[in-house]
Amino acid sequence: MQQSSQTEQETNSQSSPAEAPASPGLWKLFTVALRLGLTSFGGPAAHLGYFRQEYVVRRRWIDERTYADLVALCQFLPGPASSQVGMGIGLLRGGIAGALTAWLGFTLPSVLALTLFAFAVQGGAAASSPWLHGLKLVAVAVVAQAVIGMGAKLAPDRSRRTLALLAAAAALLWQAPYSQVALIAAAGLFGLWAFRSGGAQQEAPASLHIPVSRRAGAVSLGLFFVLLIGLPWLRTAVDNPSLALFDIMYRAGSLVFGGGHVVLPLLDRELVPGGWMNSETFLAGYGAAQAVPGPLFTFASYLGAAAMGWQGAVVATLAIFLPAFLLILGALPFWADLRTSPRAQGALAGINAAVVGILLAAWYQPIWMTAVLRPADFAAAALLYGMLEFWKLPPWVVVIAGALLGSGLGYLPGA
């Protein structure tokens, strides 16, 4: 049963019950993703910690190895890595409709919040609120738990732990837009050599059903490149503000590695000199984007609303996330073969160790550096970690506790 024919693997249209666990259903996918979208503060690294806790540990919708492989794949791709991981999990459990449903649930809260903010206020004072500082401390706890949990499984021996530490050091010392991709590629090449004779084969990856054919994947990748090349040309031929905004956001989502913070200067260069908005309006939205959960790429929703109202918010949101959807849909059908190849297993062992190191680096900077500013912050973060790891409280409870702790810390002397 595990060794299915190549034809079956090509289409991935049929699978035995053992190979394809029953889908949780689109409504369940949506409600779980929506809860994550309402409570996932702290940026991409924290999102991956929340996702692991919800999808791997609590619900067991995918196993640890599959999750780590998916994270590694999304780190290779341009765009919002945490959103792509969510889309990938939705795709694995519910097909294309599942990917769209998981994305909608995770993204909708911050889209609505930032769109309303664009209409309601001119400044970003919420970014300095004490309760927001408490949410940053939640991110410290969540990512620490993810680093420890993933490290135990994906860096179980001295060589891979060393590789993870080297990746962490390199990620902290070399902070360029393409540094994460380069580190992961280097770790993959090292793993191909170092772990080719058993280091990566301590356990076989779980059987994986991908409900998308290779042909559909190839079409998706082709459409990604057609839009990337064709939209700038079409924009010059057709004078339409919505098309121009779509082109700006699509290129931003297609060409940026390293998460939402990296996309900000690119959008600033496109929108402020182009007369879409002034610098004060742009920066006000950036401040507000730090105060909402979910992906930072929803900053595009604010920019679209500020430039063109509700229509602009919809256009900008769809355009900036469309490349991520096309890329994950195009890559996953071919990823199934790679992750079961003996040679690829060695590379994945190295890549997974590097992912642990990169997550460790992100835990220190920017999460730790911006959240733990005094002993009371460390005490609160340790308490929140205990709530997650020892008391096994659900993340949304810890988020509420973190906001309350942050508000309380605001009354301490020197706050």
UniProtKB/TrEMBL annotation:
Which keywords are on file for this protein?
A: Cell membrane, Membrane, Transmembrane, Transmembrane helix
**Which InterPro entries does the entry mention?**
Chr_Tranpt_l_chain, Chromate_transpt
Q: Where is this region: Disordered?
A: 1-22
Q: Where is the signal peptide?
A: none
Q: Please give the coiled-coil regions recorded for this protein.
A: none
Q: Which GO terms describe its molecular function?
A: chromate transmembrane transporter activity
- List, alphabetically, the Pfam families matched: Chromate_transp
Q: What is its main location?
A: membrane
Q: TM spans, by residue?
A: 96-119, 131-151, 163-195, 215-236, 248-267, 287-305, 312-335, 347-364, 394-412
Per the record, GO CC terms? plasma membrane
Q: Which domain of life is it from?
A: Bacteria
Membrane topology, from the record:
Multi-pass membrane protein
Localization annotation: Cell membrane
Q: To which protein family does this belong?
A: Belongs to the chromate ion transporter (CHR) (TC 2.A.51) family.
NCBIfam families xrefs: 2A51 (TIGR00937)
| Protein's UniProt name | ChrA
Q: Which organism is it from?
A: Paenibacillus mucilaginosus 3016
